[in-house]
């Protein structure tokens, strides 16, 4: 079998994980394949749209996919299955729609007004355009395909 590049490998992992996660009534948020220190990791982030993700959910997914993923990757790696956390990544246009009204951090592929990084509130999403209200109250229109990376921003309540 020809060696897969990282993008192809992630797509194959997603193809293994998605039906299992769907069958459990959960949602796949993201898959990462990366080296951290001297170790390789496959990190799978899942969520329960109707509540919390449990440790048992993560263990069940891990047990069902471990062998198949092991066949794809030649070097040793650690498999981690977890929730995406409170500052979860936004990967699909549906994520931006779902989290309208929430504060996000976004990194763009190309500069807009001499900047690639913005923080603001998602006002709406229409026709694959994310409308982001910046602190200056200016609305930035960002084509979805221009987004390199985005995630929710958790703000602590002040006492």
Quick take:
The chain is of the alpha+beta class.
Describe it:
With 159 residues, this protein is an alpha+beta fold. 26% of the residues lie in helices and 40% in strands. It is built from 3 helices and 8 strands; from the N terminus they run H-E-E-H-E-H-E-E-E-E-E. The strands form 2 sheets. Strands 7-6-5-4-8 form a 5-stranded antiparallel beta sheet. It has a 3-stranded mixed beta sheet with strand order 1-2-3. Helix 1 (6-23) packs antiparallel against helix 2. The N and C termini lie far apart (58 Å).
List keywords for this structure.
26% helix; 3-stranded mixed sheet; 2 domains; 3 helices
Spatial order of strands in the largest sheet: 7-6-5-4-8
Structural class: alpha+beta
Amount of helix: 25-40%
Enumerate how many helices there are, as a single number.
3
Major sheet size, sense and barrel closure: 5 strands, antiparallel
Q: Return the domain count.
A: 2
Along the chain, the helix and strand elements come as HEEHEHEEEEE
CATH topology of the largest domain: GMP Synthetase, Chain A, domain 3
The global form is: globular
Name the poorly predicted regions: none
Radius of gyration: 18 Å
Distance between the termini: 58 Å
CATH A-level architecture of the largest domain: 2-Layer Sandwich
CATH classification, class level of the largest domain: Alpha Beta
Give the mean pLDDT. Answer: 92
Q: Find the count of extended strands (DSSP E, 2+ residues).
A: 8
Strand content: 35-45%
CATH superfamily of the largest domain: RimP-like superfamily, N-terminal
């Amino acid at each position: 079998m020809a060696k897969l590049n990282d993008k192809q490998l992630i797509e194959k992992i997603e193809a293994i994980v998605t039906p299992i996660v769907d069958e459990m009534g959960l949602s796949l948020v993201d898959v990462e394949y990366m080296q951290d220190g001297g170790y390789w990791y496959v990190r799978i982030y899942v969520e329960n749209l109707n509540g919390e993700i449990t440790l048992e959910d993560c263990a069940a997914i891990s047990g069902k996919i471990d062998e198949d993923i092991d066949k794809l990757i030649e070097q040793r790696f650690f498999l981690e299955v977890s929730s995406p956390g409170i500052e979860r990544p936004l990967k699909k246009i549906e994520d931006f729609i779902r989290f309208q009204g929430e504060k996000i951090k976004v990194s763009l592929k190309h500069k807009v007004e001499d900047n690639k990084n913005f923080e603001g509130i998602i006002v709406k999403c229409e026709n694959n355009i994310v409308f982001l209200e910046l602190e200056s109250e200016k609305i930035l229109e960002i084509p979805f395909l221009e987004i390199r990376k985005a995630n929710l921003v958790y703000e602590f309540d002040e006492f």
